[in-house]
Amino acid sequence: MSGVLYSLVALGFVLIFKASGVFNFAQGAMVLLAGLALVRSLDFLVAKGFPLWAAIIIGIGFAVVIMAITAWLIERFVIGPLVNQDGLTLFMSTIGATFILEGAAQMIFGSDAYPLRLFPTDAWFLFENLFPGGILVNKLDVWGGLIAGILVAGLAIFFQRTKTGRALRAVADDHLAAQSVGIPINWIWFVVWLVAGLVALVAATVWGTKLGVQYSITFLALKALPVLIIGGLTSVPGAIVGGLIVGAGEKIAEVFLGSYIGGGIEYWFAFVLALAVLLVRPQGLFGERIIERI
Amino acid sequence: MLYREAGQFKTTYAEDMAIFPIRQDRIALGILLGIAFIGVPLLATFHVWPFAGDYLLWAILLPFLILALAAIGVNILVGYCGQISLGSGAFMAVGAYSAYKLGTGVHIPLAWLGFAISIPPLPVLASILLGGLMAAVVGILFGVPSLRIKGLYLAVATLAAQFFFDWVFLRVPWFTNYAPSGSVNAPALNFFGLVIGTPIERYLLCLTFVTVFAVLAKNLVRGNLGRQWMAIRDMDIAAELIGIRPLYAKLTAFAVSSFIVGVAGALWAFVYLGSWEPLAFSIDRSLQLLFMVIIGGLGSIMGSFVGAAFILILPIMLNLIPTELGVPLSTETITHLEFIIFGSLICYLLIKEPHGFARLISIGKEKLRLWPFPY
To answer: What is the pTM of this model?
Structure first.
C-alpha cells in the first residue's frame, strides 16, 4: 500500500507542474524538510512538558511557517528571476534548490532518523467471517488514503472554483500571456510552492509515521517520478491512480517475478513500467496531449 | 596587451577554421599540455613542493582527469544535444563492468543450445574501449525513448537506466564473477607488456585518454554532427524541418556520449578505484556529473574541465579553509555546507550565467582582446 504514499508525493509534483510549468525536482527535499521541522519541534515541545495535543498543533503550525518561508525564498531567489525561461532551465534550478534544501534541513534539524507517531500503525482484520484469516489492513494506510482523498478533493475545488486557482492554470499555460493580462506571477508562484509545501508536509507525516523521518525519504520521493509519468504530468487524479498502479505493481512484480530474476526488483520496476508507458503513450495515461509549434 | 591578435592574418580557410585561431591560445594550450605531460611527472618524481606525497596526484589530479572525461561525455548529451540525462552514473557503471567482464574473460553458458560462448580475457586497453562500446550500445537503447519524449520525461527515462543498472550490478552475480561480497577487483593494468602501477604512470595514462578524447570531442562538436546536435537542442522541430534527422542526431549523441562516459567509467574503476562496488556509480555520481556540466558550462568542452575541477576542489577547500582559520567544522557540517553551496551556485549560475564558468572565461578573453579600451 505504499502506493498511496507515492501518490501523496506525486501530488506535490503535479501541483507545481500544473500551476507553474515547473518540474519540481525538490519535492522530495521539501518532504524531508517538512518532516524534520515537524518531528523536531514535536520532540522539543514534548520535552518541554507541553501536552501532546498542544505540541502537535504548535508543531504543525511551526512546520507550516517553515514551508511558507521556504516557498517565499524559492520564489524570490530561485524561480522568480527565471520567469519566462524554458522548462529545462527551471528544472535544473530546482535540482539546485533540492541540494540547498537537503543541506539546510539537515544542518538545522539534524541528520539522524527520527520516529514520528501521529497515526495509529496497528493492523485491522476485515471480513474475518468471509475469508479465512480476513484481509489485513493497516490503519496507517487507511489514514493515508483518507488524507489523500481529502487533499485531492480540496485541491480540485481550489483549482476549479477559486480566482487564484484559475490564475494558476493560466500561468501554467503561458507565463508571458498570464503576466500580460495582469496576473501577479510572483504571488501565484508563492502560492503554488506554499501549497506544494503543505502537500509535502502531509506526505511527510504519513511517510514519517511509517518509516521515521530521515534522509532516505528524499530517495523514496524519486520513486514518485514514475508515478508522475504513468499518471501524466498535469493530472491530479492521474497522480493518485499512478501511485496505486506503481504501489501495487511493484509488490506484485516482486512476488511473482522477483523469485525468478533475483529479488529486489521493487527498486527499479516502477521506472521500467514508466518507460514502457512512455513508449506507448508519451503523455501518460491521463495527461494532456503535447502539442508543439514553432 | 599580451592577448591581442593584431597582426595575425589568416590567409587560408584552414587557418580560419582552426580550433584555436589565436596564436596566444595555441601557445597557452601548448604550455598547459607541456606542464601536464612533462612538468607534473617530473615534479612528482622528485617530490618537489606541491607533490611532496602522492596526495595531490592520487586524490585530486587522477579523479579530476577521469571525471572531466565523463563530464565531456555528459556535456555532449546535455550541453550540445539538449537531452537531459540523470543516468550518466549508470553508463559509467556499464562501461566499468563490461570492461571488467571482458578483461577477466566472458563465459556465457547456453545450456539449452548445447554450447557456450567463451571469450578469453582481453588486453586492458581493448577491454576499456569495448567497455565504452557496450556503454554506447546501452546508451542507444535508453536513448530510443528520446525520439518520442523529451526534456523532463526523458530525465525520468534516464533515471530508469540508473536504477535498473544499480540493481543489475548489485544482484546479478554473473557480472561480478560470483564475488561473494559484490565488490570486484580490476585486472592488472597491462598495456602491451607495460604494467601501469605507480600514481605517475596512472596519471599519464588518464591524461593520454583525456587528451585524445577531448580533441576528438572538440572536433566532433565543431563538425557536421555537432551542428546537428546543436540544432536539435535549440529547437528540434525546426531542426527537423531544415532536414536534420532527429533519429540519427539524437541516437548518435547518445552513442558518443555514452561511449565517452563508459570509457571514463572503466578508467574510474580500473585506474582510480582498483576495486569497486555498484555504489561507486550511484545516482549521486549522475547528479555530480550533471553539476559539473552546469557549473562548468553547458555546451563547452573546456567547461567540462572547469566544472570537474571546481566540484572536486570545493569540498577540499571547505575542509581546509576553516581549519586554517582555526574553526574546524565537523565532517557532517561540511557535507551539508557542500550541498548548500552547490545548490546555491547552480541556481545563481542558471540565473546569471547559464553558460557557466566557461562563458565567464571567454568573456574575460573577449575583454582582454580589447583591453584597455572598453569597446
So the answer is: 0.84
